[in-house]
């Protein structure tokens, strides 16, 4: 059995407390890095939000689509279809902004599953049929810098000044744990 366990016994044992201290320090470093990046950014959309917006608006030709719009009390209902297709998609855009965004829904399902505007919503924003609707407003709130800053609030700090000595000084030793007395295993063969 000793030979079978030889490979496992040769590996370095990792102390659980030291591993947790290392993870806390790494997480604190990551938190402080992204907190600094979030509060340095001046644009409305976050870095990733800006990239997603540019990707959504890329290669969309407004001349390839037909648009018809109905305005209700709280939302705009727009029917969008391609000139070369009979498929129609219904886009719902709210009239009022919610936290700086007018991100809506579409029957194609992409906004609901991917969390980014679909081609049909992009066509509505590009058409200027809804007064005041911009490229940035069509993006959902969770891609804005304000939402990014809310995740990394200025008054929140991740303490990473933890060491094994501070852990030892803050805990009470367990006095009930004892080594096996030497008289219980006297003169027995095998490993102690």
Task: Flag low-confidence runs.
Answer: none
Number of strands: 4
Order of helices and strands: HHHEEEEHHHH
Main sheet? Answer: 4 strands, antiparallel
What is the beta-strand fraction?
5-15%
Q: What is the subunit arrangement here?
A: single chain
- Give the mean pLDDT: 86
Classify the helix fraction into a percent range. 25-40%
Task: State the end-to-end CA separation.
Answer: 15 Å
Overall SS class: alpha+beta
The Rg value, from CA coordinates, equals 30 Å
**What is the 3D shape?**
elongated
How many separate helices? 7
Strands of the widest sheet, in order across it, are 1-2-3-4
Which structural traits does this protein have?
alpha+beta; about 10% strand; about 190 residues; elongated; single chain
General description of the model:
The chain is an alpha+beta fold. It has a domain at 47-145. 36% of the residues lie in helices and 12% in strands. The protein contains seven helices and four strands; from the N terminus they run αααββββαααα. It has a four-stranded antiparallel β-sheet with strand order 1-2-3-4. The longest helix is centred in the first third of the chain and has 25 residues, at 16-40.
